[in-house]
Amino acid sequence: MDKAIHRSSKAMVIIKDLLISYIVTGILLLILAFLMYKLDVSSMILNAGIILTYILSNFIGGFLLGKSVEQKRFLWGIVMGAIYFAVLIITTMLTDTIVGIDMSETISVLVICLFSGMFGAMLS
């Protein structure tokens, strides 16, 4: 019974930290959209801003999760990045056609999510 409660609380911590990660993502994307509206931003700067958003969001999510777990923080950070990426991909597939997804970009985003979540958890 005690293990079930512990698993349940760990799942709630992951969900809470994932929600915080997506709130950070939303805020950063709003800032990026405002900059695009006010300034003449090139596509290269836009892509860099989106990548920076992924990095910061996963870093914060991994950092928060790393503070909550006692052991194997790097592994939990990778889990956080993987869940973040999974939600991102599912949302992309539901709102866009699957044909429009570039595999090399998708793999790059996966690696960014995994490593930034792991790095955040390791520094916690």
Distance between the termini: 29 Å
**Overall outline:** globular
How much helical structure, as a percent, in the residues? over 70%
Radius of gyration: 16 Å
SSE run? HHHH
Class per helix and strand makeup: mainly alpha
- Into which percentage range does the β-strand content fall? under 5%
Overview of the molecule:
- The structure is a single chain.
- The mean pLDDT is 86.
- The protein is globular and about 45 Å long.
- With 124 residues, the protein is mainly α.
- Helix 1 runs antiparallel to helix 2 (43-68), helix 2 (43-68) crosses helix 3 (73-95) and helix 3 (73-95) packs antiparallel against helix 4 (103-123).
- Helices cover 86% and strands 0% of the residues.
- It contains four helices and no strands.
- It has one domain (2-123).
List the defining traits of the structure above:
mainly alpha
Summarize the entry for a quick read.
The protein has 124 residues and is an all-alpha fold.
